Amino acid sequence: MVDSELQEPNIVAENVQVRYTVNTNDPGLKAKGLRRVGNVLRGRQGQTTVRALRGVNFIAREGEMVGIVGANGSGKSTFLRNVAGVEQPDRGRILVRYQPLLLGVSAALQPALSGSENVRLGCLAMGLSPEEAAEAFDYVVDLSALGAAIHRPMGTYSSGMGARLRFAIALAARPKIMLIDEALSTGDATFAERSEKAMDELLAEAGTVLLVNHAAKVIQELCTRAVWMHKGEILMNGPAEAVAEKYRWWAWNVAKGKEDIADKLLHDVVSSAVKEEINILEPELIRDPIPRHASRLNKVKRPENARHVRRNTHVDEIEETEEPLLAAAESQVWTEKIDVEQLAVAKFPVLPKPASEAVSAPRIHDEPPPLRLRPSNKRVVLRAADPKDRASSVAASDDLTGRRLESRARKIADERYLERQKLRETTDSIAQDSHT
Amino acid sequence: MSETTSSSVATNPLGLSSIPSVSSEGLVPVGRRTSLRSYLGALWNRRHFILAESRAKMSGSTRKNLLGYGWLFLNPLLSVMAFWFIFGFILESDRDIDNFLGYLIIGVFFFQFTGKSMTGGTGAIRSGASMIKGFQFPRAALPISVVVRNFLDFIPTAVVMVLLIAVITPPDVITWRVVLVIPVIILQTIFNVGLACFLARVGHKIPDLTNFMSIVSRFWLYGSGVFFSIEDRLADHPAILATMQFNPMHAYLTLVRNSLLYATDSSPWLWFMAIVWAFGLLIVGFLFFWRGEESYGRL
């Protein structure tokens, strides 16, 4: 949609690999000999190594809401746990601008304590001071809309109520990066509306949300971009509409038992997938480019390439791009006219329309989007004067919190909100039409 | 730049975007173990969380019982009675100990403080799994909150214990040395923090340890001279007696008994042992726990 590369990245994952060694009772994996005796003594049957993530490269930028779709066991939750820093990947690394906050399905924090006590405990765990926690309390209770249930033990909550409270607690610290793992799918319709609004505000403040949800429709509605994970790898990365649509089609075929179609779809996606790699530039290179640059000149012949060396070893791709040039070189026709034409063709190949333009509704960039009306008595002002003492800004050596508040991220968020409303209205009216 | 993007788009029929190089400026690795200095700073910032967490554990466990906080006092009192019946009445190990009941009360109350911190610290990571998954905070807050919780439990019981002893002992032994109990409690608490941190990492790595811990705790209870005098019993085994002198719990218990029951000055060796054990284990245990900081998310 927008030229998102202008935005600063909030999350960068480089070649993240995770493997777990787990017990299995797969008869094919039974150990032999003495080891088997040992396993029997320990009450085990065998062990196997599961590769949960096989080299995930991923970037999420400010103001982006990225949906993650994929079948069960494809590594979505593992990825989110690693981004949150709960676990460390076996290989690769994950860089973040702010401390991410993970919202998982396991809702109850301290089941024996009441909801209000959990609110306080959660706020303090995120690094708020007691005064800030007390200030945030009303906001959390308001947002969760639990009523009198807030004073009951959290262990007695339904899963939806627990998820609501967890979400509200998480927002109390004003996180910049939120990772939502199916946590909102248990909420009811009113809560969905509230949580969407809250997330829009988060995005408008140059935040990032990663959303795992099995309903492709939710991803299409909410997200700007989507990622399809399959067996620990990212298969597809692109506009939410296109990716979610493909995934839904694939999942539908799998569900209907049409495995040949599903396999073919998967094969198509895999064959067109670009194995993306990220080149992370270390800050010293930018801050003090001269000495490194000077030393690199000796080794690397084309220094301007070193800025984005994408080790993109896709053999077909190289052949395709080079072929017209090679043909031109072989035919030895070096008249200027033909050369110019060839170059023009190579530079601007006729491409299929980008899926974002093809599917999504047209946008009007000329007129400014109408202002969203916000409640004036907003009790969301919890930010401390010093950004360093807050949970969500651990990364803040040079915190850019306030700078981009009214940047285009807000514009995008507003735009998307309106668009969603419009879409809903149209679908509602269509539904009503079909009813009447 | 434009060349690389356009070429990758060309291979991709959907026109998907590709990932170019990014600058890591302002980005930090997530969930990594920070330097000891900033770790301690972060821990200090979470001091309110540690307090709240320990209070939560305290009330969470007492609410389930009918008597609630009453068990804080009833449990050690009942065990004192049980031990008195077996060791004092049946085995008659009280014949060479003055004021055996006071001796027993101090032993049981003070040992329970460390014993509970030990078992609680071993399971601290496991029982705090939901907090670990939900929020990012220095994980050392969990074993420390176990000790803080036991400390908060211990203070009211210690007051009751001192009152009990004041009732059952002759008034002439109560001297200014009673005040010396306070530094001993502080030293023992520091010792417990180190112990809980150390065992938290070991217990996370080796889950079997919870089974083993009850045996270790019992062995330690008997070996620290809670209900008989080690010096008298082990007079025939000087080698074992010599090693027993290094037992930190023995040092703490003897220090308390000397100042509360017998109104005598303790030897400097005992004070030395108490201080070295407290700070030595705190440093070793905390550093050991801190070095495993990244691993606690995997259960």
Explain how this protein is built.
The complex is a heterodimer of chains A (436) and B (299). Helices cover 43% and strands 16% of the residues of chain A. Chain A has helices at residues 33-41, 76-84, 115-125, 130-144, 159-172, 189-204, 216-222, 240-255, 259-272, 283-287, 289-299, 315-331, 336-347, 355-359, 408-435; strands spanning 9-23, 47-61, 65-69, 91-96, 100-103, 177-181, 208-212, 225-230, 233-239, 280-281. Chain B has one domain. Chain B contains 14 helices and two strands. The radius of gyration of chain B is 25 Å and the shape is elongated. Mean pLDDT of chain B is 82; it is low at 1-13 and 15-19. The chains are: A alpha/beta (436), B mainly alpha (299). Chains A and B meet through strand 2, helix 2, strand 4, strand 5 and helix 3 of A and helix 1, strand 1, strand 2, helix 3 and helix 7 of B.
Write the topology of this structure.
The complex is a heterodimer of chains A (436) and B (299).
Chain A: E1 9-23, H1 33-41, E2 47-61, E3 65-69, H2 76-84, E4 91-96, E5 100-103, H3 115-125, H4 130-144, H5 159-172, E6 177-181, H6 189-204, E7 208-212, H7 216-222, E8 225-230, E9 233-239, H8 240-255, H9 259-272, E10 280-281, H10 283-287, H11 289-299, H12 315-331, H13 336-347, H14 355-359, H15 408-435
Parallel strand pairs in A: 3-7, 3-8, 5-6, 6-7
Antiparallel strand pairs in A: 1-2, 1-4, 8-9
Chain B: H1 2-11, E1 22-23, E2 28-29, H2 36-45, H3 47-63, H4 70-90, H5 100-122, H6 124-127, H7 129-134, H8 141-168, H9 181-205, H10 209-223, H11 230-233, H12 238-244, H13 248-260, H14 268-291
Helix pairs in contact in B: 3-8, 4-5, 5-8, 5-9, 5-10, 5-13, 8-9, 9-13, 9-14, 13-14
